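2.7 Reproducibility. Because tokenized structures are sensitive to small changes in the input, we list the exact sequence used for Membrane protein involved in the export of O-antigen and teichoic acid, including any N-terminal residues retained from the expression construct. No trimming or masking was applied before prediction.
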Amino acid sequence: MIVKSLQDFLRNFFSNSGHHVFFSFLIAKVCSFLGSLLIIKLLPESEFGVLSIVLSVVTIFTPFTGFGSSQSLMRFGSISLDKDEKLKISSYFFFKGILFELILIILFLSVSVFYFNKYEDIFMIFLFCAVRLGGFYFLNHIQVFYRITGRNQTFAKINNVVNIGGLLLVLFLTYFFKFYGYLIAISITPYLSLLWLKKDIYSHRDVISGNYKEMWRYGIFTAMTSLTSDALYSLDILLLGFMLNENAVANYRIAILIPSNIIFLATSFLQSDFPVLSKNFKDKKFLKSYVVNFNKFFFPICLGILVFFYVFKKYIIILFFGETYVENTTLLMILSIGFTLGMLTRNLYGNLLPAVGKIEINTWLSIGSLLFLAVLAYILVPVYGVIGMGIAMTATLLISGLGYLFFFFSYLRKLP
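Resulting structure tokens (single pass, no recycling of outputs):
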């Protein structure tokens, strides 16, 4: 299967219902943003602060949902060409994942003991969030099942219902029942996915062929990669807060907010194609053709974004954040360069490597990126202030992107 031209590349994307996936990710971004605004406006500062602490713990545990069972299902379900084998793999990970998810929830609840003495009733918040964590397991598994069976449109529909339904639940329950209304809303939202729980997802419990150890190893490495990748976008804030002050953090956060979110253009595209990429992980011509056409499509987009930001950078900051932050135009441009060029390297090859089964490379490069950012920030921030952090982040994105590129083409050269 070779993608011969950009036209074929886009036709395959649309025939694979990739546009549905793209818009579902866009809707998820918008709902997440609106949900954050709602709780800031509807909850008292003290309750919002305690909730933020627990949700930060949830963020750490979420990538390990089912101990990586859904990530393993995505990879090995995609490369299986036999429909019955896909169903067997799904059933295997469904029941094994439930067992591991229960262990994960117990570990999550055990973290609450460190907060008992400082925050009253925090265990109740942990309980609600534990229910939410369990819901994520079902949501992830159900969504992945529909993706590996080629039903991206159904995946997008589930994503839309969960995100839009969740936003409406948050609005309604928080407005009428305040803090506990919000906890109820976020805890039940992932379970809306159960509307799409079909018998095929869990009923084929025959023994599957394959290396179980390799399957679980892939899932755990994927979870670790997700955690360390997300940590990159927290470490910069933590370092600035430690090395400078809250004003520097505020200026940096508004400058990075838009650039860091535009990468969803590339990631949603790549995620919709992940099952196809996994299926063709040994097809050298297909992978080379995919890379060429991806760059043909996204290079003009990235260039257009950079030109747009350069011309309208002042107006963008004033429009979204007010004139108070208008002096951050240089920082906005530095970060825009890192994130837009990162779409062509870090995002592209960082998604291709897991698709071809080289997830451990992503894990080690993600850990290396954290160390590189910390060292560079330590050198640059004392000299250049918040601009130094922007340079450190951009350099980290570009250098790590070249690392992903190097290892992907090293893999490609070994293919016959």
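The chain has a mean pLDDT of 86.
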